[in-house]
Each structure stands twice: as C-alpha cells, then as structure tokens.
Amino acid sequence: MSSAIVVSQDAESLGLQIYSRKEKSLGVLVSNFLRLYNRDDVDLIGLDDAAGQLGVERRRIYDVVNILESIGIVARRGKNQYSWKGFGEIPRSLDELKEEGMRERLGYSSSNNSDKVSNGCEREEPLTLTPDDQENSSSSKMDQKKEKSLWLLAQNFVKMFLCSDDDLITLDSAAKALLSDSPDSVHMRTKVRRLYDIANVFASMNLIEKTHIPVTRKPAYRWLGSKSIAERGLSLFNSGEPKRVFGTEITNLRAKRNKTYCSSIRKQIGYKKHDEENTEQESKPAASKYVFGPFSPIGASKTNNDKVGKGRLLEIEALASTYQPQYCNQEITGLLGHFTEAWKKWYAEVDRNK
DNA sequence: CCCTCCCGCCAATGC
DNA sequence: GCATTGGCGGGAGGG
After folding, report:
1. Which one of A40, A65, A88 terminates a domain?
2. In this structure, what CATH number is given to the domain that contains residue A213?
3. Which nucleotide has the least CA–C1' distance to A172?
4. Per-residue b or e along A120-132, where b marks 16 or more CB atoms closer than 10 Å to that residue's CB
5. Neighbours of A167 (CB within 10 A)
6. Which residues 21-80 of chain A have a CB under 7 Å from nucleic chain C?
7. What is the residue range of A30's domain?
8. Are A222 and A168 in contact (CB under 8 A)?
9. What InterPro entries does its record include?
10. How far apart are CA A138 and CA A119, in angstroms?
11. What total of structural domains would you count in chain A?
12. Is the Cα torsion angle A184, A186, A188, A189 positive or negative in sign?
C-alpha cells in the first residue's frame, strides 16, 4: 500500500489524474515507438496511427521520426507515411556518418563550401531532381531551413561522437561546435534545448549514456555503441515485480500538464517518487544481459511461433557476418554483436519462462 | 535556485 | 485554401 503504482491507481480510480513528466518524455515515447514497430510484419508507419497508438499529439511523432531517421531506423516514404527500416540499418548509417564526418573534418580536396558544419545531403532528395549534372550538391539558400532541422542536428551530434577523439561530450560543447555561426546568445540556448531532446532519444536506445565530466560535475554524454551496460530489460518479463515496469502502457493517456492543478493534488495524494528508477549499478556482476534499450523484440512475446522472432534474429546475424569482414569498424561490428547478443539472450530467457 | 525539456503556438512548406 | 511539417521558446517539473 505504499507503492507508487498502487497510489497512482487509486488516484485514477478516484477520477484524479496524475501528471508525471517522466512518463511523457521523448525517451519513453521513443521506447514505446520502437517496441510498437519493431516487428516483422511492420513495414509502413502512418503518422496518425502512431500518434493514436502511442497516445500523443501528432507533433511529437515528428520529433521521433526525425531523430530516428537520422540513424536510418525509419525513412520517409511520403506524406503521412514512414517506413520501418529497422535496427539493421543502424550500422550502415553510422558508418556513413563517420566517413562523412571524417571527410568534413580534414578534407579540403573538394572545391566548394564554407566550413559550416556539414550539410552533406543524405536525406533522400525528392525524386524530382533537376537534371542538374555535376555531383554538385545544392548550394542555394533553400536549405538554410534544413540546417536547423532536428534531423541534421541529430546526425551531426552522432558525428561528433564517431569522429571526435574525446568520448565525453557536453551539450554545451556540442551546441557550440554545431553552431558555426553566432557564437553566443539565444542561439546557444535554443540549440541546447534541441540537443536535450536528441540526447534523450539516443540515450533511451542506449546508443549513448549520460555521465558527468570527472572533476566538474557537468553532465556529459558518452558514446557506447556496443559496450552498453547490462541492466533491466528482461525485467519486462519477470512477472509480479513490485518494480514499475517500463512501458506497461503503450497508450499514454495520462493527464496533461495542466497549469497549476495537478502538482499540488499529487502531493496531497501522497505520491511517492518512483522508487526503483536508476538501477544504475544493480549488482549484477557476471550476468551479462545485454540490452538494447528498455524494450524487447515483440515477435517473441507470444512465443511458440519462433518463426517470427527467429527471422529477425537471423536477419541480424546474417547482416553481422556479411558486414563484418568488409568494414573493420570497431563501433559498428561491436554494435551489431551487441544486438545479436541481446536478442539471443532474450529469446533464451523467454523460452525458459514459457 | 538552476537545470531539464514538454507543450503547443504558429510559420513554412506541401498539395 | 487546407493540410503537413516542424522551428521555436515559454514556462512547468524536478533536483
């Protein structure tokens, strides 16, 4: 009778709604999004559908897909429509980004171009490209808008990790580096605001991890393509846990932020802060349960037809083996291995539980 | 108090 | 014209 869950349920049954900022975070949204669409039978993603399924405003879906697209997990297919590419695309994307980033860093071979931070178009140009010869690449001002897009910002953010030699990056430093213009003032703040969103998303996928700079306690992020630490994830399946399981409610129909109401109410009700939360260093010494994000492959949730899940797994494994030899890229292969490992472990666990 | 960042207004852009 | 996209920053939540 003291668990946060119980309390919140009571509150709900009383007709009261609880607002929790955390449950509304982009990170959680993305987790749900991925859990929802990481299936074998998923190909197209409708924006309206997504918004409905996840119980959020349309606007938020744009944030999600824009960021995910920067890593190649989804791709724009058309109006109101994205297609699911899957985690298998990540290595490729990262590889490209790295190469691109390196080139920009010390590649003065080509003629053109300011030293603005990239703009190397990646995004599928609308098929109606002008019969413009030359490898070229734009130039005009048309893409000054694009320069501020979340999509590009996200790409440049990961480029920083992939190319830079220091593995701890502060949002401020990132913002500064990715600003290229107007060194100070409001632009910084805005940029940082955006970076918070991006960082949260990547963090929720365990692509990066939030830490602190050694001596200064300034928060910073570290890239962990592969060596992601084990923790949680399987907890999704351990039934009857007092823990607040991570996305038990795909449909996020929680109260709105509503000015001035809820916070006080919540306190009166006796809302206790989530116990659990950061299981940071759960003492799980040797148990190397790799987890890619707080979500798990859905195909297997209804085990018995391991066709579904296996298909995905094999697909990844195949990719891993074909991909490894050609590119000797630590980051990438590590990442893939990590994925494969995660899936294997997960399926094993499910089978046992069954 | 400062840091984090959700929310949704409304401007571009597309059709 | 309306519909889609998505910058942008006010100001609420959380430490």
Report:
1. A88
2. 1.10.10.10
3. B3
4. bebeeeeeeeeee
5. 12
6. 21-22, 47, 58-59, 62, 65-66, 79-80
7. 26-88
8. yes
9. E2F (IPR015633), E2F_WHTH_DNA-bd_dom (IPR003316), WH-like_DNA-bd_sf (IPR036388), WH_DNA-bd_sf (IPR036390)
10. 9
11. 2
12. positive
* Separation in Å: B2 C1' and A214 CA: 20
First to last CA, chain A: 30
Q: Which nucleotides of B are covered by protein (CB under 7 A)?
A: 3-10, 12-15
Q: Which of A279, A277, A343 is nearest to A316 (CA)?
A: A343
Residue A93, in any domain of the structure = no
Find the helix packing angle between A26-37 and A58-70, rounded to 10°. 70
Structure tokens at A71: 């890593």
In this structure, is the dihedral angle defined by the CA atoms of residues A312, A314, A320 and A323, taken in order, positive or negative? negative
Please give the distance of CA A253 from its chain centroid, rounded to a whole number.
21
Q: Would you give per-residue pLDDT tens digits along chain A (354 residues)?
A: 443 444 445 555 555 678 889 999 999 999 999 999 999 888 899 999 999 999 999 999 999 999 999 999 999 999 999 999 999 999 999 999 999 999 887 654 433 333 444 444 445 433 333 333 333 344 445 567 788 999 999 999 999 999 988 889 999 999 988 886 776 778 999 999 999 999 999 999 999 999 999 889 999 999 987 554 333 332 222 322 232 333 334 556 667 776 544 444 444 433 333 333 333 333 333 223 334 555 544 333 333 333 334 444 444 443 333 232 222 233 333 344 444 444 444 434 433 343
In chain A, the DSSP E strands lie at 44-46, 74-78, 81-84, 168-169, 208-212, 219-223
pTM: 0.68
> The tokens of A206 are what?
């365990």
